[in-house]
Write a structure and sequence with these properties.
By secondary structure, the protein is α/β, with parallel strands linked by helices. It has helices at residues 6-10, 14-27, 29-32, 49-54, 62-65, 100-103, 144-154, 164-174, 189-198, 223-226, 229-240, and strands at 2-5, 33-34, 37-38, 40-43, 71-75, 90-95, 107-110, 119-122, 128-131. 12% of the residues are buried. The model is unreliable at 255-260 (pLDDT under 50).
Amino acid sequence: MIIVGSSAVEHPDAKAIFETVGSFVDKNAVNFITPEWQGYNVLQRTASRAGAYEVGFTTPSPSVANTTPKMIWLLGADEISESDIPQGAFVIYQGHHGDRGAQLADVILPGAAYTEKSATYVNTEGRVQMTRAATGLPGAARDDWKILRAASEYLGAPLPYDDIESLRDRMEEVSPVLRRYDVVEPSAMGALSKVQLVDQNKGSKASGEPFRRVIEDFYFTDSISRSSPTMARCSAAKRTGNSDTNFMAPGEPQPQVAYG
């Protein structure tokens, strides 16, 4: 099995990497790609990216990708920095925990955390899962789909659903797999890999630039972790090399201190 990390996609030599790996897999397809086995995979590190790809939530063309936006809607996007935002752009943030994206926003629309909504997720292996809310929404927070539905109506282009079942019907229209809960759908990669990852990258040359560590702090990889006192203690312990580190406890740090 070959697993290509998502950081390879972001590397300057991505085309050369995919041509090299894809050519190897194509030459040894009998071992890598069979009706029972998918031995060539790309591992995403960003939550919901697999689901976004499933519904076609991608940049439609290079010209669109190169367009400088005047308005940016950050839909739960917290893995960004101020340098990612074009100067003068109006920023709307929809999310929870008031993390990095919220700090850059002109308008904040409080959404729901995963524990606060009934939702559909696509996990790492491509298995669709449905969750139910474990707790109520705080304050003015709303389910994310309701925020988008309200915004669409305000803009004069109402989305065609008014409840979660209608929304799931629409999701099924876009991708039937999104109603096949707890079932691993076979990947289409076997049919697409040679054209998309080998042929279109033919002749790409590697620059030799080394790979860099894309996760700087394992304990702070998302907005919820960065808001967690427990993860903060873990991060501090790793950074200092001292497992007794507990900067939130009163007095001298002790492993057995009772957290208040």
